[in-house]
Amino acid sequence: MNAAPSPIGPRGPGAQGQAHAQAEAVAIAAERRWVFVVAAIIAVLLLMMVFTGLHWAAMPPSRVETVDINTLHLKGEFVESNLGTAVDADGKVTVRLIAQQYSFEPQCIVVPAEVPVTFRGTATDAIHGFIVGRTNANTMLVPGFVATFTTSFHKTGEQLMPCHEYCGTGHEAMWARVQVLPREEFLARARPGERMNCVPR
Ligand SMILES: [Cu+2]
Question: 125 C-alpha to center of ligand 1: Å?
């Protein structure tokens, strides 16, 4: 025959059993509080991921602007005669460039110091990228997408601009130069409608 379960638990009657039950109740309450704290932390992290993912639209960093790589050299913004630095009528400076295995076009880019410069670039064949010296001018160039950002250069002189995305066997030889000119010198050289570069002729 089975004995009836004891009403006072396996540890027997008395103060010891009561203290144990109290301690267990405290532990359970504390663990329950921590479940809410941890759940709240996880919820905040998930909300941050969803917000940043949707708000910044992930990749490419600025927004999605596509370009047809099959007609890149034939028509539109990235034809050879339109590459280089342009100064618009309203004084805005835009650099357009393309990356291909294993060079940048133009090979030498000229920009003014202390003036916001907008870069617009794309790649023709593989994923490339560039960084200008120790500045914050830094982007990936993905075929079919236009990468764009605006930055200012504070130091005049020449900077190296290497490709920083491994793009094939010639990757380490893929780089261009950026010449940062004093603002007045740059503007004296600029001609409306012309595309500037510093490629030696
Ligand atoms: Cu490259």
Answer: 9
Q: What is the reported pLDDT for 1?
A: 43
Q: How far is CA 40 from CA 28, 43, 49, in A?
A: 18, 5, 14
Taking ligand 1, which is a single-atom ion, which protein residues have CB atoms under 5 Å away? 128, 163, 167, 174
User: Where residue 120 falls among pLDDT bands split at 50, 70, 90?
Assistant: very high
pTM: 0.69
Residue 75 Cα to ligand 1 midpoint, Å, equals: 23
Is-contact 137 68, C-beta < 8 A?
no
Q: What is the pLDDT of residues 5-33, one digit of tens each?
A: 545 545 555 888 899 999 999 999 999 99
d(CA 106, CA 53): 34
CA of 198 to the centre of ligand 1 (A): 21
> Which pair of tokens denotes residue 32?
């329950």
Lowest mean pLDDT among 41-45, 97-101, 186-190: 186-190
Ligand 1 centroid to residue 165 C-alpha, Å: 6
pLDDT above 70 for 139 = yes
DSSP 37-64: HHHHHHHHHHHHHHHHHHHS-SSSSS--
DSSP label at residue 14? S
